[in-house]
Structure formats: structure tokens, C-alpha cells
Design brief:
Helix 1 crosses helix 4 and helix 5 crosses helix 7. The protein has 183 residues and is an all-alpha fold. It has 10 helices and no strands. It starts with a helix and ends with a helix. The radius of gyration is 22 Å and the shape is elongated. The chain folds into 3 domains: 89 residues, no CATH class; 41 residues, Arc Repressor Mutant, subunit A (Orthogonal Bundle); 42 residues, Orthogonal Bundle (Arc Repressor Mutant, subunit A). It comes from Plesiomonas shigelloides 302-73. Modulates RecA activity. Pfam families: RecX_HTH1, RecX_HTH2, RecX_HTH3. It is found in: Cytoplasm. This is Regulatory protein RecX.
Length: 183
């Protein structure tokens, strides 16, 4: 198993939870940037000037000798690192889905929107379903809080302002039943 790849994975996982697909994508992007030849601007335009740029340059140059020689070898090493992280329970899609669900619901998003975002991040459907089932979130109460925060209390009952509330709540990912229960 490639130590540089594992260290980079651990550094990413120490910052926040990741789904397997997110971690795989970020590690693959690191390989692509490490495989790019070093020049003054090309591979390092994302680094800041001064010491940060120098540190990024030297770390990347140091890591080039550590990277697998071919993309196939890299793919094998990447899968070994992902499997090791899963085995050590550092990487868990179920835990990630639960954390993401709590975070996004606190920001006022509904279950449909959260489910869609988790799918886009590569979380398996079973993990999403289980996270939604395990959550103790009252989606109707959350919808009421979000609507009142956005539109004030009492909510408008006229046709046009009411349709504006409904569109906003659908955009936020709430089910039609939760939206209708607002009135």
C-alpha cells in the first residue's frame, strides 16, 4: 500500500467525513496533479505565493517518486487504500450520510433535496434510506420553521404569494404533504 496515498487520505478524512466516491475522486485528482510535469505556473497555479507555494511544490515533487508508475497501478493502490480506510472504520458511507443529513436539515433543507445531494456525492441508496429512517427529524415542523423564517408569520393565503411559498419549499426539498400542512 502506498504510504503517500494513505497519508493524503488520512489528512482528508481528518478534516471532515467523506463518502467513498468523494475520497476516491480527491485522491485521483492528487495523482493527476502529481503526474503533471512541474513548471513555474502550470501545475502549481492553485498554490499561494511565497512559502505556501514553495511547500506545495516541494511536497508534490517529493511525492512524484512515491506514486505508482502507471494509471493501472495507481488504481490498484487507490482501491487498497480505500479498502484499508473502510476496514479501519475511518471511511463509512452510512456515517457520512447521517452527518450530512443532520447538517443539511439544520440549514433548512428537506429530505428530497438532501437525498438528491447524497446521490450526487456517490452515497449508496441503502445508506441514504437508512439515514433517513434513523433520523428523528420532524420534517413538518422543520418546514414550518423554514417557511416562517423566510416569509414571516402568518404565511400568506392569497393565491400568488402562496404559490411563491410552495415553490420555495419544493426547491428546498420538502414533500408536498409537509408543505400543505403549513396552512
Amino acid at each position: 500500500m502506498n504510504a503517500m496515498l494513505l497519508n493524503h487520505a488520512l489528512r482528508l478524512l481528518a478534516q471532515r467525513e467523506h463518502s467513498e466516491q468523494e475520497l476516491r475522486r480527491k485522491l485521483a485528482a492528487q495523482f493527476v496533479s502529481a503526474a503533471t510535469p512541474a513548471d513555474d505556473e502550470g501545475a502549481f497555479t492553485h498554490a499561494r505565493r511565497g512559502a505556501k507555494r514553495t511547500a506545495a511544490k516541494s511536497a508534490l515533487q517529493f511525492s512524484r517518486s512515491e506514486w505508482p508508475a502507471t494509471p493501472e497501478a495507481f488504481a490498484t493502490e487507490l482501491e487498497l487504500v480505500i479498502a484499508h480506510c473502510v476496514q479501519q472504520k475511518w471511511l463509512d458511507d452510512q456515517r457520512y450520510a447521517g452527518m450530512f443529513l443532520r447538517s443539511r436539515s439544520q440549514k433548512g433543507y428537506g429530505p428530497r433535496r438532501i437525498e438528491q445531494e447524497l446521490r450526487q456525492r456517490g452515497v449508496p441508496c441503502e445508506a441514504i434510506t437508512q439515514a433517513l429512517f434513523d433520523s428523528d427529524i420532524d420534517w413538518s415542523a422543520l418546514a414550518a420553521r423554514v417557511a416562517e423564517r423566510r416569509f414571516g408569520s402568518p404565511l400568506p393565503t392569497e393565491r400568488l404569494p402562496r404559490s411563491k411559498v410552495i415553490r420555495f419549499m419544493l426547491y428546498r426539498g420538502f414533500y408536498q404533504e409537509d408543505i400543505q400542512s403549513l396552512w
